[in-house]
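Technical appendix A lists one of the benchmark inputs used to test multi-chain prediction within the project. The record comprises two sequence entries:
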Amino acid sequence: MMRHLETIAIPVGAVAVSLVLFGVFITIAGANPLEVFASIYRGAFGSWFAWQDTLVRAAPLMLTALCTALPARAGLIVIGGEGAVVVGGFCAALVGIVLNGVLPPLLVISSMVLVGALAGGIWVGAAGALRHYRGVNETISSLLLNYIAIALLNFFVVGVLKDPATLNKPSTFPIGDANMIGAIGESSIHWGLGYGIIVCVALWFLMRRTTFGFGVDVVGGNVRAAQLTGLPVGRLIVSACVLGGAAAGIAGMIEVAAVHGRANTSLNAGYGYAGILVAFLARHNPIAIIPVAILLGGIRASSGVLQRAHDLPDATTLVLQGLIFVLILASEALYGRIPWLQPKAPPKEQPVMQAKEQPKEQPA
Amino acid sequence: MTVPSPFALEAVNITKRFGAMIALDSVSLSLRRGTVHALLGENGAGKSTLVKCIMGYYLPDEGQVLFGDREQSISSPHDAHLLGIGMVYQHFTLIPNMTVAENLVLARPRLPAVINWRAELASLEKEMKGMPFQVPLQASVNTLAAGEKQKVEIIKQLLLNPKVLILDEPTSVLTPNEADEVLSRVRAMTQERELSVLIITHKFREVMNYADDVTVLRKGKYIGSTTVAEATPQSLAAMMVGRETIASPLQRAQRQRGNASLDVTDLWVENDNGVDVVCGLNLTVHDGEIVGIAGVSGNGQKQLVEVLAGQREPLRGSVRLHGAAYTATRAQMHEHRFRCLPEEPLRNACVGPMSVADNLALRRYDRPPYSSKSRILHRAIFKRIAREWVESFGIRTPGIEAPIANLSGGNVQRSVLARELSDAPHVLVVANPCFGLDFGAVAEIHNRIMAARNGGAAVLLVSEDLDEIMEMSDRVVVISGGKLVHETTPATADMTRIGQFMAGH
């Protein structure tokens, strides 16, 4: 369908333009852009080793992208993924520490997933509720909730919950090796990737195939039409935010249970913010988030190669990420305006309006 | 040598078309020097279009504007300002968080790069002495009452020394006392300053008290001009709303009045600005009758419909459907088969980017056969029902998967009709259903609403088109100032009295 052509052509075009601009930037920085592009490809997808790094980085991005994508379907711009990752990871770590050795690992991990999802859901759900019931701008409130989450984490990991053994990087006590999420087969990819894909597919089904998702789309498309048909607007908005926050909370849990083994400031490594970019690139479609997260994970994975091979700072890939973000946001304005991407115009109805004919009257 | 024209401004045989719609049909108007001239008509009569042609927002298709003695081609509001035509708009154009003085200086067409505020203030204070009313120069605009703001708007124009001042419904945001003050000062000003004022209004009281001449438009046609001295509210009402009775081609089944289905008791609603616009309204609609609410827009009918549609919370009062409390939840709408055709259907009743098929399913998507008990959507059913309705309601669309925003206004309205009327509604609320539609579509929509009524639905029809109300209704009520002030039937209606009630006279 032409309509789908547009939703693919515009983001792809925006990414292409950002690659060109990035090339200009690379040239100014003193490297050969074509070689740099080749290195990015090699660092992201050039070998099995690169693929593993890419997929490990993609897993949390899939989940944090949902934190922006689901509220966006209900018409809200939420950028609180980072905070949800932090509270989700932190609360999951607490549960892991408390239940370590008390319950079998499978139950501990399940509890960590549940609590991480719950914490992230409440965190972002609060931004949705503030928006609907109190009129607080959800973009600002979710951003501020990020800072609150990070401050709380810092407070606890350097304070009451600090493991005295962690000197260089204050952290909580470990959740125990038995409760860690393992790797898939022989690879270095942990099962967090499976969580990410499963959650994306499940939420795609919820949004596209169920009455709940349809209701959320109606609210996001036109609140007045939702009200006219009696939809519970507040409940749908808050639910979409809770689900998105829960996904990001699971991302935090995975970072704890698959990577660090404890909660520390590595939780706010920017996955929440990168997830915003993934969500916009994927046009808030949970299935499209999977490949886009892998693409972005690849770009992030290649930063080390750029540093080694071209003597570029490792923040270089952040420049590319930033360029893509700006151009994707700018390209939103192009929808419906590029003539050859439009579906055929509907048959024009002839007289749209007509003043009723009436005999002219004399003034009384 | 010619004698100087007695007219400050003349519009001669102005015709303006938008596509096939004729918004103005050979309308003329002559504004005598140093007088106040009222332009009177219902909503949609073409008053604003005429003024926009004079101000250069629109280019008339035929006819010309004479300014002073000469024909002038005014192709933009800028040209109009240069000629000395100023306009005060219906809605405030002041910048709320700046002071009055800042707003007044800002309005000047040419500003120096650096503004010497001390000098500007001094000269403003001097000029204010010659103004018909005073405003506090240092006050921030957002601290002013509506009447004060309106005065600032007028002073803003007067400082530019216009020869002609156009006021678009200047009192719509004012209390009666404020309106009296502003208008009497404006009137005094015309004599002192050789200023000519054209005032757009639909209030007879203002015409009778403050205008010298009046021109009446109805449905884009010139009805007549007269001096106010020769006019009476009755004669103006007759000119404004017309007196012809309309033969009804509709199939109206004879019915006994049924049970009260929709009951509104002591309803109070405020508008977006926190002003009470529905003030203790009581209304009952019975099964099998159409109750038409006539009224000039802005008298609370929009907010009344929004409350019934669930788009606005009332302050207090009750709405009952079939005796049960109604708070516009989905369950209640389903139980009482409450359906609504709001005005501006694309804005109020459709999700623009969603497909025609999805929009047609909005009422019932969460029930069989659209979805299963486990809440899984059956998209095939969406499509099948959409195809049926596109066929039976004659919705012209490139396909049922096309976004509904791509359809023309008439087809959007047909889609909403299909959705709202297909499952035999018991209570139906309709607002301006034919606004902007062609003749054929109007007849079709009227027939479908009448069929719902004949099928036993209680229908509430809110319309700015008095002909439509008279044609459709079993009972007619008039809303003014947020209350129902008059009730009659089309058979016994006295149009002059209805016009007077509508105008709050």
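Chain B touches chain A through 68 residues (CB under 8 Å). Chain B has 17 helices and 20 strands. Comparable benchmark entries are summarised in Table A2.
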